[in-house]
Amino acid sequence: MPEIFLNGQSVQAREDQTVLEVALENGVFVPYFCWHPQLSTAGNCRMCLVEVEGRGLDIACNMPVSAFMKVFTDSDDVKAHRKAILQFITLNHPVDCGICDKAGECTLQDYHYTYNGDASLSADQKVRSTKYYNLSNRILLDNERCILCLRCTRFTHEVSKSMALGVERRGDVSNIRPVEDRPLGEDPYSDNIVDLCPVGALQSRQFLYKSRVWYLKATPSVCPGCERGCTIQVWHRKPEWFLKSLDARQNTAIARITPLENPAVNGPWICNKGRDLSRIFERTRAVEPMLKGRPVPVAEAVDEARRLIGAARHPVALVSNWGSNEELDSFKRHLGEVFVHAHVKTDWQPEEGERIEDDLLIRADKNPNTAKARELFDETQPAYHDGTDLVLVWGEGYDFAKIPPQAKIIFLNSYLAPENGHADVFLAISIQTERAGHYTNFQGVVSRFEPCFAKGKHVLDAEALFKALEAPPRGHT
Amino acid sequence: MRHLIPEFERLRSRFPAGFESSLVLPCVRRIQEDRGYVSDEDIAELAKYLGVPQIQIEEVLSFYTMFRRKPIGRWHLQFCHNVSCSMNGAERILAHVEKKLGIRPGETTPDGRFTLSVAECLGSCGTAPMMMVNEGYHENLTVAKIDELLAGLK
Amino acid sequence: MPGRQLIMSFPVTATSHTLAEYRARGGYQALEKALKTMRPSDVVKEVTASGLQGRGGAAFSVGRKWQVVVYDDGQPHYLIANADEGEPGTFKDRWILEQNPHALIESMLIASYALNVRNCFVYIRGEFDLPYERLAAAVEEAYAAGYFGERILGTDFSCDIVVYRGAGAYVAGEASGLIASLEGKKSYPRNRPPRLTVKGLYQRPTVVNNVESLSNVAWIIAHGAAAFKEVGTPKSPGTRLFSVSGHVNRPGVYEVELGYPWMKFLEEDCGGIVGGRAIKCVVPGGVSSKVLTGAEIRDLDLSHEALWDVGSTLGSGGMIVIAEGTCMVTLAQILMRFYHHESCGQCTPCRHGTGWMHRIMDRIVAGQGRPEDIERLYYISKFNDGTTICGLGDAAGYAVSGILDKFRDEFEYFIEHKRSRCDGNLECLRSS
């Protein structure tokens, strides 16, 4: 375990570490653009130059530690070099922060104010390049803003292995370009390069011009797209910035989704499906309870459900594998004795064209909580018979044609669907962005999600509902 | 590019095992020699044949000055205009050729006969000024020599 | 003749490059001596003892570089002769490839034996025509004579060679850029560590040596390290091939015994300056070496130490002689255009710095220079010095700062008066 000196302070390092890693681990910040802990070392931005006694300046990201080396990360020479590197990086940079989505979370902006602050020393025209290059149907590339750190390129070669990106030409007319035959759009991890890009060169079309980032807050959540359960950040408007003059929907929309770094599950990545969760969460909602399609007050619907449950001799339940740990536990505790036959339902199947499974993150089971559901309930398909008189369906994805015609139906769903009107009792329930809870992924890792939005007035939380359904209906002794 | 595969196989056997990636440059050069330029189909076929990512070949084609993806004139005239050649009259010779052919560097004569380019040092400084005509060096150029040379290039 | 000749030691004829004539001059006896009477480590010792310095640019000890390779580490090793020769002013490796290719080949065989190399390569710039043909023909001759292949000369040593053609990139002359190119990729140089002698071609220990450096090995093994050290100076043993061009009457490739007086070389061997003019300055070793004025070289010898002492270097041996009346500002513009064109674009200071310097020089030459341009050029050079992945950025900086150091007044004049103080014409017409 070699000992090295950072700005005079002794620190312990591991033999296989670089000076940059040791510095960051010990709270000594050395600025960098191209380095990333999950990618190979490129060493091209030259921003992490540090001074080593007896050796002069060199980049820290590729510098092995050696015993007793004396490293200075803030000497005058280092400071002068950082300023110069930033002068070079911004030499041809358009500095169009006013129209760039990255403003507010841009490494170049931050470093400019921290380490440079001066205007450009150049009296010459900037090199121009393509500004709205269609990298894929999801990502726009601005080559003028690009600093050629090659994080995006390395990601497609080393992590997603789509080999989709490369560099055309050379010198200051180099441009990131996608391979010509297979568009980057086929890479289900493509959008991670938008997170990786330290400047505003790569922009997500979904998010383009939607909002300035400082108006948004990021709420931790879990992606329900498959049983990997990657942790994510759901970005939405901060309450103090709610705009009363706009359609209320704007205040409660998902602005974008980014990964929440998680060494145990997904590292710093998520797949594109996780970015597109508004496709799932922002479908038209079921807003109120109904009895055979007739809207009724919540109390009346709950009461009717209690009555049906109390009267049933052979009830069967289809339990949602999108239910949270808390909801599933609640069902087991409160309705487990009544619904002896409770079967795990697979709410979502893989869609047409969706990648089924791979070595990276994507799993074949497109549901977030199968693990927990199977722990508590029966994995097999329900066996109906002529005596089946009540079927409780919780969540989406069940073929109602399978339900025996004589059985009553209690249906719990979040989204608008034709079956909602067929059920004897329909109850509208909340979705994960409206409450706190946990999912258990296929490895047994339990991850938490937090609420982003308020639920509708007549929408119920399943966890509390199951408890309410346990009590006998009013009017019984 | 398929008809070149037997040649590529022979070339592959000259390299140690596992050097398929190295074959990109020589194969591209041979394809270009054969076709006059490298086509999109060539890129896809070569990538498959060598088992390298297609993007690698695309990068190589745009990085190196000797490769091209479009055809040019029958005779490619490349004039060095670096230091020693400039000190020995390269600019004067080039101006003469530009006037004679009516084209500037980067252009091709309308009849498709000549394409004119400038190049950086070609390693011929002692016999400056000089130019390449396709694959060959022509050194110690004078205006008279060039006129004679060009007349002979049909 | 500028001193003793080791490599250009025979009259060049239409056939002097062939195997038969090379053998008639004693060729391939050194190989026999090495394979049959020396151990690989003996060869490394001999080359190290000779003091042979690299002749591609850095003048690093060839033997010291070889010593990093661990003979028996159980993995493939590679030897690559760098024949990319792209440094402006340099054309001396070309002479070896055209006129004495077997000196290179025999030397590479000896080096491969010493370094436990089974597969060696010559990386030759893609534009060379005759040098490639002569080298390829020599390789075929060597194979036919049994100098390549299995069990060479009846010993356990086996070796194969591939001549690999570049495709037009000066940066492929940088050792790690060369390796990237030999791997079939764009020529992006690599950061060190790891050194190439530890992880080089396909991450294996690789020795990259200049053609001329290697070509000395056969002579050293044939005659011994002591004999080599008797030639040249103690700090610069041996000879160097200089490619002389520019405003001399007899440009060409000359082998100079190191320590030979510079002015004598230029005035006698090279025929003096065109038109009888005075020497304004000389680029000693390729444009990446710092320019020296006529006054500065007056009493200098051609040796590594003499040039290091005056802040320059013999570099690639590309000597460009510049006569009085030549506009140094225009020359600097050509150089900045060159570096800008050749920058691979990987790292920040060089990618933007070379373009910036080129644009500044274009502006000055177009009569739109600004007073702060000189300081800008110095600024860009300073922050390309030691900050880049490879030496191209540093070289671009040295080229311009070297000229500025010696000829600042010409730049100031050009900026102020919007034209050259000389006639702006670089060409120096010959007197006859």
Total number of helical segments of chain A? 12
Any low-confidence stretches of chain A, pLDDT <50, length ≥5? none
Strand content of chain B: 5-15%
N-to-C terminal Cα separation of chain A, in Å?
74 Å
Which protein chains make the most extensive interface, counting residues with beta carbons within 8 Å of the other chain's beta carbons?
B-C, 48 and 59 residues
Q: How many separate domains of chain A?
A: 3
Q: What string gives the helices and strands of chain B in order?
A: HHHHEHHEEEH
The structure class of chain B reads: alpha+beta
Unreliable parts of chain B = none
Ordered list of secondary-structure elements with their pairings:
The complex is a heterotrimer of chains A (477), B (154) and C (432).
Chain A (H helix, E strand, L loop, with lengths): L2 E4 L2 E4 L6 H7 L23 E4 L3 E4 L10 E3 L3 H14 L17 H10 L16 E2 L4 E3 L9 H8 L6 E4 L6 E4 L13 H5 L5 E3 L11 E7 L8 E7 L18 E4 L12 H4 L2 H4 L8 E2 L2 E2 L2 H14 L3 E6 L4 H11 L5 E5 L24 H7 L13 E5 L13 E6 L4 H5 L2 E4 L8 E4 L5 E4 L12 H9 L7
Parallel strand pairs in A: 1-5, 16-17, 16-18, 18-19, 19-20
Antiparallel strand pairs in A: 1-2, 3-4, 3-5, 6-7, 7-10, 8-9, 11-12, 12-13, 14-15, 21-22
Chain B lengths: L4 H10 L9 H12 L4 H11 L3 H10 L11 E6 L2 H4 L3 H12 L12 E6 L11 E3 L2 E3 L4 H9 L3
Chain C lengths: L18 H6 L4 H9 L2 H11 L11 H6 L9 E7 L8 H8 L1 H15 L1 E8 L5 H15 L15 E6 L9 H8 L23 E5 H13 L1 H6 L8 E8 L5 E6 L2 E2 H8 L9 E5 L8 E2 H4 L3 E2 L1 H6 L8 E6 L4 H15 L5 H18 L7 H10 L8 H27 L15
Parallel strand pairs in C: 1-2, 1-4, 2-3, 5-11
Antiparallel strand pairs in C: 5-6, 7-10, 8-9, 8-11
